[in-house]
Amino acid sequence: MDCIPFGRKDHAGAVRKIVRRNRKVKVVATLGPASSSPEMIEKLFVAGADVFRINMSHTSHQLLTEFYGHIRGIEERLGRPITILADLQGPKIRIGTFENKEVQIQAGDSFTFDGDPTPGNKTRVCLPHPEIFAAAKAGDSLLLNDGRLRVEILSAETGRLDTRVVFGGTLSDRKGVNLPDTVIPIPAMTEKDRADLEAAASLGVDWIALSFVQRASDVAEARKLVRGRCGVVAKIEKPSAIASLAEILEIADGIMVARGDLGVELPLETVPGCQKQITRAARRAGKPVIVATQMLESMIVEPVPTRAEVSDVATAVYEGADAIMLSAESASGKWPDKSVSTMDKIAQAVERDELYRGIINAQRSDPQPTSSDAISAAARSIAETLNLAAIVCYTSSGSTGLRVSRERPDVPIIALTPITATARRLGLAWGLHCVLTEDAHDLDDMVSRAASIARTEAFAQPGQRVIITAGVPLRTPGSTNMLRIAFVGER
Question: Which of 156, 178, 200 is the last residue of a domain?
């Protein structure tokens, strides 16, 4: 079976120090020009990165393969599973070009979008997306250049949209278009996305992030193409996705709060509320949720974040998000490893705050009416009541680990699995410390192995107790039905 031996030795023959995070929330770091070398990627991991995001908008298949090799090499040296997320670009809706590269449009002006590829002027421009003409209607808004300009549609007909400028400014060649009021009849994946998905899934990435999600069927299509090879994260970045959030959550394996596009398509003042709504819905569903975009934006150029950015990161941690994400800060910024360590310190400080546990507990929902969910809830309750050192869960498919994570217990969670892909994928989930180990031979071996690993991984001292969850009979996926309290011995 494909396993990474625990405690692998490095080239000097010494066992490398065990990497154990002193926090429950996970940190996602995006790779890019500032973090493309194996040395810097390892620095990011040591600084606190649990998940590496590869942005396929800026990554060729060759570079994807190189990133993958670097990460797996670090994983091999450190003997610790590392999670990789490939983020698909999604369709890009852009206008055409202008005769003089750009124009100035003013509030109150009339402006037309049409299908004529001729370079535009101050009264019209090409919009080479016929599906928009079919879907848009009078009263809908179009946002241009990341929301800096806004026009309102006065009339819509085949091949033509007549609009009135609401907020004007400079409009230049091939600027992006957002339609917050319109469900556009185009798929979430382009041919490039399909090729990128296949390349990433075949390589062995653990998660795919799907852009431009408007409806649950977009996620269903991605899952069909993935064929179980990795998890699918639905990026919530459009108002239509928020309206379909419940249906999307049923199909997606995880959720990303993509605040960049949400902030373009929604009034800015509503984005924090949407973030809370999405995070809490994902927590109730037991699906990992990532909060992303501009978390420590100033650290692209500055060595310290603003106080507002620190508060922003802290809010996501207080909400119980599974992961918080760095984008340009680690991909192209001047301080990639410092950005990761700063986010790590903020998260640790929040989780030590005396108010944190009360906030987390207040948001806990009742377990689902299944034996596995009831067992996971009971494990959390017993561990906290008896002040046990850790919860140790055996998990094959990963579902048991996610159920225990959903409970957000105060004690550490150790997820034991013999399957490398499961350990890597669970690296995104809140609180899970994943360890690859051989499958237990029997119940006695299961108990002794769990207690031994809890001690070796520095979660428990001899004489302390842990609680173990597993399924009986052993090696039966999805059959979590047993709890066992065990003492940790000397060896």
Answer: 178
